Amino acid sequence: MTKKGKVYLVGAGPGDAGLITVRGLECIQLAEVIVYDNLVNSSLLKHARHDAEIIFGGKTSKQHTLTQDEINALLVEKAREGKTVTRLKGGDPFVFGRGGEEAEELRKAGFNFEIVPGISSSIAAPAYAGIPVTHRGVATAFMVVTGHEDPTKEKTQVDWAGVAKFFGTRVILMGVERIGTIAEELMRHGASPETPVAMVRWGTTGRQQTIQGTLATIAEVASRADFKPPAVTVVGEVVRLRENLNWFEQRPLFSRRIVVTRSREQASELVRQLGELGADVLEIPTIRIKPPQSLAPLREAVGGLGEYDWLVFTSPNGVDAFFREFFVHHKDIREMGPLKIAAIGAVTSQKLAELHLEVDLQPMEFTTEALLAEFKKSVSCENLKMLMPRADLADQRLARGLEDLGAIVDDVDAYQTVPDTEDRNGHRARLLSEGADIVTFTSSSTVANFCNLVDVPALMKHYPQMRFVSIGPQTSLAAREKGLEVAIEAKIHTVPGLVDAILALLTKK
Questions:
Q1: S-S: 401 plus which of 85, 153, 267, 372, CB 3.0-4.6 Å?
Q2: What angle separates helix 444-453 from helix 473-481, to the nearest 10 degrees?
Q3: 312: domain CATH number?
Q4: Active-site annotation holds for 174
């Protein structure tokens, strides 16, 4: 039986990736084809299946990658192929999103569809700028109109006279390039020239920019600020509340563009913490974690665990890789036997704690040197057999140092790090065109692969303000060997420590 295609018309929210609905995220994860718009936060694409076909169908006021008719035809074509299609649209698909037109075409062609509402920028962008669209005693209603139409046309679907006389808040979408004409039209129909106006660009994202004026002045303010789409315009007395309610733009890293080079699997916590502090985060993973070229050595080591006295883990990736193989051959964690465990790093220890395993030896400082010092001080290593499941290209200093203390060390490839050259979310292109304030490095391999992916000297020439931040000494050394000056190194070599270093660097007086 031939599978029948289905299309999900999904509102991706106003820009902040965290504002997508749970159902919307599910639709991204199950899609075989994703067609997304210009205003969709491309970070959402990281949740797509690795084999999903990703198609950009974005439109701006002056450029269409695909026309609306072409998008309609594309959705029908993919559904006809029996595919599960997720159509991602900025905001809500039925609020000036032309989702109704796409649904009509699908119904006409006989295909099933589902509408997944999203948070509209008409309420979200003002909220992130500290402007409630309704407020008791100030505005008891709000309207949303398109500013895409020229209000001076003889025939217009927008009743600008009615908009001017409306007693509540007026929210105008897509009106940046016509704001002067719109303001004049509203005043011509009786709106006070002193009516407060705010315009919010890239609302709910780290790129958010807000300007304020009145109907009489807003066109000049926008021109002076070189204010560009996409933006939401708010007209009404609620704009005055921004002075006390502006919350998002007060965050310590607001408007700072920060690059995260960690692997896709590991980046989420760093991205989340920086985003909560208001940063405009560019996720540019430079490495991918893969199984080693040969699993035989690791498999042999797991089969002979009884021969070892110590397991030594230097990263959470090593823990994941080792126990993935362990549980292929064993059903019970107790089959590990009386092994002792050493670990570098809080996250590595946390991974072990999730398996209800205690760490017997862990240095306060998360470095190779510190672990060697702990072994030298606390353990007689002579003739102890140690297993170290690590990356294929891991630094050999730890293994050699333990051998110098008398241990017999099996340094086994448990995983490999390979360059991640994909730019699915378009963030590398944004870095090249817009630059950044900070580039973060969390390992030596992120340094090496970032330098291979990007012409760093050329980038620094265009954006000399860009600085590099390292999670620890070995990473800093790798950066300096590549000719990069490390502006600051995390005192505690963890993600929170890295965030603290960034805050210290960017917020110091």
A1: 372
A2: 30
A3: 3.40.50.10090
A4: yes
